[in-house]
Design a protein that fits this description.
Layout: H1 6-10, H2 15-31, E1 35-36, H3 38-47, H4 52-59, H5 64-76, E2 87-88, H6 90-106, H7 114-122, H8 125-134, H9 143-148, H10 150-153, H11 158-170, H12 181-185, E3 186-188, H13 189-194, H14 205-215, E4 223-226, H15 233-246, E5 257-261, H16 263-267, H17 275-289, E6 294-299, H18 317-326, E7 331-335, H19 337-344, H20 348-351, E8 355-358, H21 364-372, H22 375-382, H23 388-401, H24 409-425, H25 431-455, H26 461-504, H27 507-528, H28 540-551, H29 560-567, H30 569-574, H31 581-595, E9 606-611, H32 618-629, E10 636-640, H33 650-654, H34 668-675, E11 680-684, H35 691-695, H36 697-703, E12 705-707, E13 713-715, E14 720-725, H37 729-735, H38 745-757, H39 762-765, E15 769-772, H40 778-800, E16 803-806, H41 808-820, H42 826-849, E17 856-862, E18 865-871
Helix pairs in contact: 2-3, 3-5, 6-7, 14-15, 21-23, 23-24, 23-28, 24-28, 25-26, 26-27, 40-41, 41-42
Length: 872
């Protein structure tokens, strides 16, 4: 090949040829061929539609199927087994050079087309032999005829359309060598700003001023924006583009163009050694030779530096450093602080060429201002009314409940989702109606199966009757929802229409329109109640509902049932946890304060240490809380602290630090809370953990967060933390030995402080509330026995259809046996599991073996033994 640079020559290829050559390179690597040959390129050109090659095939009547077979056969003859592509073959270099000669000298064009490439190959003896060796079909193509009638043959090619557009863009004048490289891999942000395609940027004036100061330097005029993902680094650069477009910059920056460099496009298809560097160098040359000053913006700049780049691309920093140091290539970079330290800071020579500009997460007040600037764009896109209260709620709720992401990004995503939800509600059936219809469809299928089984006498006729009754209830519910939806839809449509009229109505009609609108809004509010099916606008409640769906945390408007549940929490817990009303009241008070949003938002909902003998309901309290407040017992995170008796087990809880085995896998506690931030955390038998383990909870109890092994902040502010301990069991048992002299909870708590201080540091006890649990009396044990027996009776009826009766003597005997062993309520489970349930199981299995069916079962205690028998 001649001394012409490959980057210069290949930059002359039109879009179709260039993309097909990139595809040929990838295709070559996929097949394991060492070099990209003409046959690879030809194969990819055959995949295109309506290019110059297809027009030549039609004009000279080539057999396209035979040509395809010949190309595949030629590909199969190439050597295979290469792990990477070494280079382009010499045939491709020569073919492009010859095509440029014919295209530029004979046709006077600035871009090489497929027809030029084919003519150049056929007019070069060595290349023509290669082409005809691939397929004899090319013997039919006359190079002279192709050149003489080129415009006619290729008139319908899409490459002709591309050439026309390029000619118009370039005004018929041949472009400089590197013209188009920047346009191919970049985007003019100043042009987008002038066209109104960039949203307004608010609240980043200080960062933009810092960038302007740095860009105005004579040397080392390269700002580097550092900040966490989502804080708005790209938006800061867009703000600068808006200022340049409006002329609100110093005189030297008025006519500057700000270009965004697309790293993905720059790296795409650059699999061959040196190709990526050639592209980057061509781009640098174009920027430096441009008559209009150009500033480059490289987002995720670490991907170009050292190990940040893709494998095989080398180190682009060596190309950037000279131009950056001389001030000839003004560049704005953006990266996160972690990636800056990992990739850029390790190269001092590169670091000194940039001046860092820290882009911090905005506070709530500034984030609200930022979001307000996006309101008009969101309203225009979703065609909904966006209230200012929704903007404020999006910032406050996302900051409070989505700690893993940064403002303003998370608030914008939240507000965008809320707008989408309102827009969907105004044009689609509500989710409640769809869910109801899906349940009806599922029930129809089940009824069909039950009827089919009943016809062949293998099914239960009573099941069909029950299913039909359920279907009728669901159908009635669906009809009610449909009617309500239609009524709401009519009102919402009318309200939206009235709002539109307010913008165009004459002044004298505004009062009447507003009165009508208010009346309709009141009617809609009365119809919807606490559970609206449609929304007329995006308000704070819609935003809160989206946060609830994302996190599982109940926010937004509390419906009456939720309010009642919180107010009656102590009663609900007392139905399951027997004899500890005082402790349940303390927990309920803290939960009520939290739900009323009056407590410190930077602490967990509550931190309680439940102290008492074994089997009195400490663990059961945590389970009951999870079921009552958090949607079920599955939302409890249980950590057995007896497994953390060594100091080094701290890393198991919060994750291994860098350099240790297990780094990156997360801790058993931190990962569980990170996945389920709204849950009960049960630290069972906390006194058995090592003192170093106790200390990691100081920050959690006081500030509501813990840093895991990877440096992430894990949010505990929406959890209830329950610690259980058997410390002071002897003291509690002794003080509560006489039922007539039972101490008050406060007195018992004060007495417990001395034994607790022997195990726990005062700093830990000062951050939580100690709740003493009383030993269980015989009356309490009897209530627990009855509660457990009711659960067994319910399972018996659900699984076997048998109604059971339990004699009072059974309860008395179980209570008596529990008293003999100092294990509290746990002995109830043991007695039922080891004595009563085996008897019932034996009876049921014997009846099943004899194919006998019974409806009633009686359980008694006679002559020192439990008895189970079927009753008539």
């Amino acid at each position: 090949m001649s001394e012409i640079s490959r980057a210069v020559l290949f930059g002359k290829l039109d879009t179709l040829l260039f993309t097909s050559l990139e595809s040929a390179t990838a295709f070559c690597k996929l097949r394991g061929n060492p070099y990209v040959e003409l046959v690879h390129w030809l194969h990819q050109l055959m995949q295109q539609s309506d290019g110059d090659l297809q027009q030549v095939i039609r004009h000279f009547s080539l057999d396209e199927q035979a040509l395809t077979r010949d190309i595949v056969a030629a590909l199969d003859k190439l050597p295979r087994g290469a792990s990477s592509v070494s280079d382009l073959s010499e045939h491709i270099d020569t073919a492009v050079e010859r095509a440029w000669v014919y295209g530029s000298l004979k046709f006077g064009v600035t871009r090489i087309r497929g027809g030029h490439l084919l003519a150049g190959i056929l007019k070069t003896w060595s290349l023509a032999n290669v082409l005809k060796g691939i397929s004899p079909q090319f013997d039919r193509v006359s190079a002279d005829a192709l050149l003489d009638n080129f415009d006619t043959i290729c008139a319908n090619s899409k490459e002709t359309q591309q050439a026309t557009v390029a000619l118009n863009d370039e005004s018929g004048v041949a472009a400089p060598t590197q013209q188009g490289t920047l346009a191919q891999y970049g985007q003019d942000l100043t042009a987008r700003a002038r066209d109104g395609k960039i949203d307004p940027v608010v609240g980043r004036d200080e960062e933009i001023r810092q960038m302007v100061d740095i860009l105005m330097r004579r040397r080392q005029n390269n700002p580097l924006l550092t900040g966490e993902a989502g804080v708005g680094k790209t938006a800061v650069v867009e703000g600068l583009a808006l200022r340049i477009a409006s002329g609100d910059v110093p005189e030297p920056l008025v006519d500057v163009q700000l270009w965004l460099l697309d790293i993905g496009m720059l790296q795409a298809g650059a699999g061959m050694k040196g190709e990526f560097e050639a592209r980057l160098q061509a781009l640098i040359n174009e920027v430096q030779s441009s008559p209009t000053p150009i500033i480059l913006f490289i987002d995720e700049i670490h991907t170009l530096i050292g190990a940040g780049g893709q494998q095989g691309t080398g180190d682009a920093a060596n190309l950037l450093k000279p131009a950056l140091a001389r001030g000839q290539l003004r560049t704005i970079g953006a990266t996160t602080w972690a990636e800056y330290k990992k990739y850029i800071e390790k190269d001092p020579a590169l670091t000194r060429r940039f001046q860092t500009v820290q882009v911090a997460e905005p506070d709530e007040e500034k984030a609200v201002l930022m979001l307000r600037s996006t309101v008009s764009a969101l309203e225009k896109h979703h065609r909904v009314l966006l209230l200012d209260e929704a903007v404020v709620a999006a910032v406050k709720l996302s900051h409070r409940y989505i700690p893993a992401r940064q403002l303003p990004d998370k608030a914008v995503a939240l507000l965008d989702t809320a707008c989408a939800r309102v827009a969907v509600s105004q044009s689609s059936p509500p989710p409640q109606l769809e869910d109801c219809q899906h349940r009806i469809d599922a029930l129809d299928v089940e009824i069909e199966i039950a009827n089919r089984e009943a016809k062949v006498a293998v099914g239960d006729s009573e099941r069909v009757v029950k299913l039909q009754a359920d279907l009728e209830k669901l159908a009635a519910q669906r009809d009610e929802l449909t009617q309500r939806w239609e009524q709401e839809q009519a009102l919402v449509d009318s309200i939206i229409a009235q709002r539109a009229q307010l913008h165009t109505a004459p002044e004298e009609a505004l009062a009447e329109l507003r009165a009508t609108l208010t009346e309709q809004q009141n009617a809609l509010r009365a119809l919807q109640g606490d559970e609206p099916l449609l929304f007329t606008s995006v308000d704070a409640n819609v935003v809160a509902a989206v946060v609830s769906d994302w996190t599982g945390i109940p926010l937004g408007r509390m419906v009456k049932d939720e309010i009642d549940a919180v107010l009656k929490l102590a009663d609900t817990l007392n139905e399951r946890v027997i004899g500890q009303r005082h402790g349940l009241e303390l927990i309920a008070k803290r939960v009520r304060t939290s739900r009323a949003r009056l407590d410190d938002p930077n602490k967990p909902v509550g931190v309680f240490m439940l102290c008492g003998p074994s089997g009195v309901g400490k663990t059961e309290t945590a389970l009951a809380l999870a079921e009552s407040l958090y949607g079920g017992e599955q939302n409890i995170i249980t950590i057995n602290m007896s497994e953390f008796q060594e100091a080094h087990t701290v890393s198991t809880l919060k994750g291994a630090p860098p350099g240790y085995v297990g780094y990156g896998e997360g801790g058993v506690l931190t990962e569980a809370v990170r996945r389920r931030p709204y849950s009960v955390v049960l630290l069972d038998e906390i006194e058995k953990a090592h003192p170093d383990v106790h200390e990691i909870f100081f920050q959690v109890f006081d500030k509501g967060w813990m840093e895991d092994g990877e440096g992430r902040h894990i949010d505990f502010r929406n959890t209830i933390i329950i610690l259980t301990s058997n410390v002071g069991t002897d003291l509690i048992t002794g003080m509560c030995a006489d039922p007539e002299l039972m101490p008050e909870p406060d007195a018992l708590r004060d007495a417990l402080r001395a034994p607790l201080l022997q195990v726990f540091p005062p700093a830990l006890l000062g951050r939580l509330l100690v709740v003493p649990y009383y030993p269980l009396s015989d009356e309490m044990l009897a209530m627990i026995v009855r509660l457990q027996l009711k659960r067994i009776q319910r399972r018996l009826e659900e699984n076997h259809g048998i109604v059971s009766e339990v004699d009072e003597s059974v309860v008395e005997q179980i209570v008596a046996r529990c008293t003999e062993v100092e294990s509290g309520g746990r002995m109830v489970d043991s007695i039922l599991t080891n004595t009563l349930l085996p008897l019932m199981s034996q009876l049921l299995l014997d009846a099943s073996a004899r194919d006998e069916h019974y409806k009633r079962l009686r359980v008694t205690f006679e002559q020192g033994e439990f008895h189970c028998q079927f009753a008539a």
